[in-house]
Structure formats: C-alpha cells, structure tokens
Write a structure and sequence with these properties.
single chain; alpha/beta; five-stranded mixed beta sheet; 10 helices; about 35% helix
Amino acid sequence: MKKLSAVVAFCVLILLSLTVGQLESKERPADSQRFDLVLTGGRVIDPETGLDAIRNVGVRGDTITQVSTERLEGTRTIDASGLVVAPGFIDLHEHGQNQEAYRLMALDGVTAALELEVGVPDVRRFIDARAGRSPIHFGATASYLAARVLAWDMPLPASVFGPEAGIIPQSGPATNEPASPERLERMLAALRSQIEAGALGVGMGLEYSPGATRHEVIEVFRLAATLGTPMFVHVRSSGRIEPGSGVEAITEVIGAAAISGAALHIVHINSTCMRDSPQCLSMIAGARARRGPSYRPTRKSSRAS
C-alpha cells in the first residue's frame, strides 16, 4: 500500500508540475524520437480538453509533448497502469505556507498553494523566502489587514503560517476603528505597491476588521478594478440572524463589485451562508446574469512562483 501511494503521488507530481501544453483528446502519431520520461498505461484525465482515457504520455524536459495510444520510448519509464495521471491541484485557500505544509500538499497531489484569502504583508519578501526552496508552486494576494495595521502605525505581528506569510491581527484600533480619509489613502497606497510588486490580487478579511466602513470597502474594490486585479474576500458576517447575516454580507460585496467593476471571489461561501448557501449562490448567479453587455472582466498578468 505504501509503495502504491508513493507511485500515485509521484505520477501526479511529475506530470503536472510540468507545463501541460500539448495534452489533447485527439489521437497523435507516435514520435520516433526518444522521450526523457514516459508514463505508460495510466488513465489520463485532462479537464481542459475533456480527455479521460488510457494513454501513454511522453515528456521532454519540463513539457508534456505527446499523449498517445501508441508505444512511446523513454530514457525513463514509469508504469502508471491502474493509476490516474492528471493535472496537479491548485489550492486557492492555503494558509499553511511553510515547507512542512508544502510537503504534505505535494503528497496529496497539490502542485500550487495560494494564500488568496488574507494575503501577505510583503509579497516580495514572501517570494524571496521560498524561491528555489519550495517543492511546489506558491503565490499570494496583498494583505488588506496588513495595510490597515500599517495605516495605524502599528507593528505587524509575526505570521504563524510560515515565513513572511499571512497575518490575522489581534483585535484593536487597527481592526475596530473606521479609517480616516488620510488612513484610507495610506491603505490604498500600500495595497497598490504590493499589487505592483506581483501580488495576485487583494485579500480582504472583512470579518477580522469590523471597523471597516462600507465606503472603505468600495474604495478598495475600486483600486482593484483600476489595477485590473481581483478581490478575494472573507465577508463581514455569517449565519442567519439579521442584521449581520450571511445573506447581508454577500450582498455587501456583490454590491461593491457591481459599483466598482472589480472581479470578486467570495471565499468559503458554504461556511458563511450555511443553510442559506443555495440562496447565496442564487444571488451570485443573478449578479452574473445581469452584469450586462458593458461588463468587462478585469485582467492582470501576474505569476505564482
């Protein structure tokens, strides 16, 4: 059993920490050249093309160059019979950003761990702390919570999630007070600098900053829209009791997205809306359906390491 598990993890990680540029559902003729690596007889699943069939996979360098029913020759061959060969999982909501967590994720077939919910205070330091040392890919958003702490001239707490990783500040003025116009400008400037440094968006933990006003939320969304980067939001409240229900919290961020034009990802909506999850999902579907012909999704060319 241990040997089989190791082979499963190995196959998943080998294949799709690679560049999957040529995976196709149509048949391709066998290449006469020898491959660096061949996976034989595995069940190849490619969500992009819909392929789900037994195939042989040829790899040269770091690129999958052939998927075929025909025999392929390789310098190294792995028998993947009875196993699934598929793209690695991308975890969008991973707070654990340390080597131990990365190793466990790799064993689960995760090849990219992204901290998008709360982000990190300094994206360049986050990247530099991992460059060349991580077994999987990583990335993060700009931390709205950190921008608030800095606007109050308070020291940033150390992360418990890994080197230079996300923070959840203790309750205090920086989390509970509304921002003055001057502090709001400082927050927006800090977020802008992090996005320009390579952050994958803005991570906004609204539940952890109850002092944030509706106006402040809209202004952060407007910044994201201007820079063409998405918002990832842990909404303000949860449950069914009004005021402060999950439905109310979802309404707030859908409204901010509609006003600003920013792209929005609402994190763990199931634990926010609970029994009202179907209603919350229908609200999102309604917003999407009514976005109109003038709607343009925001785009940003950014990369995870």
